[in-house]
Amino acid sequence: MMFSPQIRRFLALLAPDRGSWTLVGGLMVASALGEVAAPYFTGRVTDRVTQEDATAAVWPLVLVRLSSAITELACDSMAALALTRARKRLQCGAVAAVLRGDMPGPGGSLGDTPGAVAERVTGDAEVVHSSLAHLLVSWLWELTRAVSLLATVAWLSPVLGLLTLLALPLFLLLPRTVGRIQQDLARQVRVAEANTTAVALESLGAIGTVRAFGHEAGVTMRVQQRLAQQHQLEKKEALAYAAGCWASGFPSLALKVAVLVLGGYLVSAGTVTPGELVAILMCQLHFIRAVENVLRYLPFLAKAFGSSETLLELLEQARKVTPGAGPPSPVTPDNHETTWTPGLCLKDVWMSYPGRSEPVLKGVSLSLRPGEVVAVLAPPGGGKSSLVAAALGLHPLAGGAVLLDGNPVTPRPHSHPCVTGVPQCPSLLSRSLSANITLGWEHKEETQVVAAARRVGVHTWAKQLPQGYNTEVGPRGMQLSGGQTQGVALARALLRTPRVLVLDEPTRALDPVIRRQVEQELLCSGGAGAGEGPAVLLVTGRVALAQKAPRVALLDGGRLRELGSPEELRTLPWAAAGDAGNGEGDD
Ligand SMILES: Nc1ncnc2c1ncn2[C@@H]1O[C@H](COP(=O)(O)OP(=O)(O)OP(=O)(O)O)[C@@H](O)[C@H]1O
Prior knowledge:
Blueprint: H1 5-14, H2 18-48, H3 58-100, H4 114-156, H5 158-205, H6 207-212, H7 216-268, H8 274-321, E1 344-351, E2 361-368, E3 373-377, H9 384-391, E4 399-404, E5 407-408, E6 419-422, H10 433-438, H11 446-455, H12 458-462, H13 482-495, E7 500-504, H14 512-524, E8 535-540, H15 543-547, E9 551-556, E10 559-562, H16 573-582
Parallel strand pairs: 3-8, 3-9, 6-7, 7-8
Antiparallel strand pairs: 1-2, 1-4, 4-5, 9-10
Helix pairs in contact: 1-8, 2-3, 2-4, 2-8, 3-4, 3-8, 4-5, 4-8, 5-7, 5-8, 7-8, 11-13
The structure holds adenosine-5'-triphosphate.
The site of adenosine-5'-triphosphate has 15 residues, from helix 9.
């Protein structure tokens, strides 16, 4: 049977519980027999009312109804459990796919900030679960009842069964059209809600800056504009809902009249007995109610599907990206030829951002042998962080390749990180200082953690904390200063003894004394000789730091040019003014 992509995605979500759902279906059909029993046996009693054994038809009715009630209870419980498992799968799957990079994270279609992405993932999954927990099971009940009742009518009188069947398109077409409109609107409303939340979170996150610059009115207006857009969509959604209710009521009236007229004729013609007509009329009444309920639940179901669509669509894409054999490299296009060279090699790397007409990296090539240190100097906005993201394999490339010993660089979970980086704004998690340094490498000895911390000046302040390395750093490391956070990120990278260290303005937030120590450490961590220690790619806007490196390259306008020697920096007017532009004095 052909389903719409939306239903297919939803069924894929329920598929792992297909055994439970098959049992739920079986129990539903068994229970629906109880619904059919009432009209059927009432008809039998009507026909036998003049006979002595009229009560003989009553006992089966009682027994069938009783077992039907028990079956219904078992069925509801099983369905509720299966739906809870589906919600867990949806949430865990989405979070895992975002973390793996298979699904867009902040800045993608789920939202601009981590808060917006989290709100979409949990919010969408919650809406789907709460709607479906109430609706899907009830809807399936009504559908099963409707089918059983229609089958009974057709069995008692094929003509009246056919009439009922012919009336069905009237039941379906009108509400379906309205349902589509509702579904579309529901999706738009979810997007508008997420946008409003993103704007509110952004404003609250930057409340200090907003107040300092007296921009409260502007921010409030922005939030109001988003709310107004959302309100407009919700009004349309309410109108569509009212239209949906009307569309589900009108066809039932038409069917009732038709069955009464034709049924009366069939009794007078002797085709059906009066008892059978009573049973048919009762079945019809229940059938119409069941179909009305099926249709009444449809808009809500459509809304639930609409709310989950983006998430399910992205999960489906994520599944296609990762077919069984492990994730492909997110950075190296499939058809790129690889050649074996030791160390890190950026080969003709191109990188673009959506919505930006010009590539941010244009054919960047650079190789670092083990133990080599290369500084890349770039002006503000010159593409430093983009180059670092490319070197770490964190951003898809538009062209070219990033290779380590001839193999594409891929951030793989649970494997030894051969290429490690320190971003310009490192992230800490709400854990202890020690756990933030080890982060995923909990097997490391405390002495190793302390040794790494000593190398970057973290030990000096860490030992003064109330619980030393076990001190909690607070949500997102809020209890540490910018310089301390940068130190932790550096210790984290060094602890892993990587083959390549990629550093983005690694000492910017450090105080001058520690900065000198750390710079010395980083510039020497390459083993001070080719072939030993990690290769270090040091990306910076500070001329004074770049000058200390044995090899220097300039990144400007997306293109990389390596200088003959660091001394050449003195001859560049742009570079000479660079540090002043950064607002950071040289040592
Ligand atoms: N996600 C993004 N979407 C669109 N454009 C982006 C994105 N990230 C960066 N850019 C743009 O790409 C260019 C390079 O950005 P990048 O952050 O790599 O520069 P940078 O040298 O690290 O900047 P800074 O000196 O501020 O650290 C900038 O013009 C920036 O506006």
